[in-house]
């Protein structure tokens, strides 16, 4: 059985816990490195990635989070969570920020613009629809949303979307350019939008299947989480 942790430093962790509850699963709030020993999978919510990174730094969570990902434990990042899981982030307002990394991609932190440019869009996600059934499309809630610009060969693209024409991408990009908004790389699932803010629990049930696949094995070999 999988035990799902939800990083509860900032952002939409309560909404993820509520979505899990609708599927009959209790999400465990994670704020300290040693708490990662007690869970077999982890959701990193949306919010504000620089704030989350600063809090993770002050709680000394980065080494444990990196180890958790490296151990192959299922991890799902939504929005700010996607940014934190990326190996490379661009589009920061000032300087860099701490990243957990593991997901071989380059993400633009705010490609879809500010709060005012937040939007909802129907997305085609064949992988999740064929796994979970139901309608072919998913409601993507994009809030100050990032987008993935480049992925490594090992990354499976689950959904893409037309790039916004707001001048944030380098000049002379073709009109029709699309950017990536959902991916899976082995144990890592990442979405630029917020399934936890919709009534559709198919993303959560897909992640629970990923988590169940490795849950048994994970429980029998607990992670040696570095706590200092
Ligand atoms: N773009 C935001 C950031 O940099 C993420 C927005 C979100 O999580 N809704 O953290």
Automatic annotation (TrEMBL):
GO terms for cellular component: cytosol; glutaminase complex. It catalyses: L-glutamine + H2O = L-glutamate + NH4(+). One of its GO terms (biological process) is pyridoxine metabolic process. It is an enzyme of class 3 (hydrolase). InterPro entries: Class_I_gatase-like, PdxT/SNO, PdxT/SNO_CS. Keywords: Glutamine amidotransferase, Hydrolase, Lyase. GO terms for molecular function: glutaminase activity; lyase activity. This is glutaminase. The lineage of its organism: Eukaryota, Viridiplantae, Streptophyta, Embryophyta, Tracheophyta.
């Amino acid at each position: 059985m999988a035990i799902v942790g939800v990083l509860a430093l900032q952002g939409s962790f309560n909404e993820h816990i509520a979505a899990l509850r609708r599927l009959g699963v209790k999400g465990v709030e994670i704020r300290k490195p040693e708490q990662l020993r007690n869970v077999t999978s982890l959701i990193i919510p949306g919010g504000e990635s620089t704030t989350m990174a600063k809090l993770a730094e002050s709680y000394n969570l980065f080494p444990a989070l990196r180890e958790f990902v490296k151990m192959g434990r299922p991890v799902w990042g939504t929005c700010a969570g996607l940014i934190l899981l990326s190996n490379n982030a661009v589009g920061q307002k000032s300087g860099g920020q701490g990243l957990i990394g593991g997901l071989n991609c380059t993400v633009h932190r705010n490609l879809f613009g500010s709060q005012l440019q937040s939007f909802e869009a129907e997305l085609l996600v064949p992988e999740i629809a064929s796994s979970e059934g139901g309608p072919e499309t998913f409601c993507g809630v994009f809030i100050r949303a990032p987008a993935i610009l480049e992925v490594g060969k090992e990354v499976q693209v689950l959904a893409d979307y037309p790039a916004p024409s707001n001048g944030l991408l380098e000049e002379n990009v073709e009109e029709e350019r699309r950017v990536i908004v959902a991916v899976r790389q082995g144990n890592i699932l990442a979405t630029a939008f917020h399934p936890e803010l919709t009534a559709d629990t198919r993303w959560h049930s897909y992640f629970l299947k990923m988590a169940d696949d490795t849950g048994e094995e994970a429980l029998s070999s607990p992670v040696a989480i570095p706590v200092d």
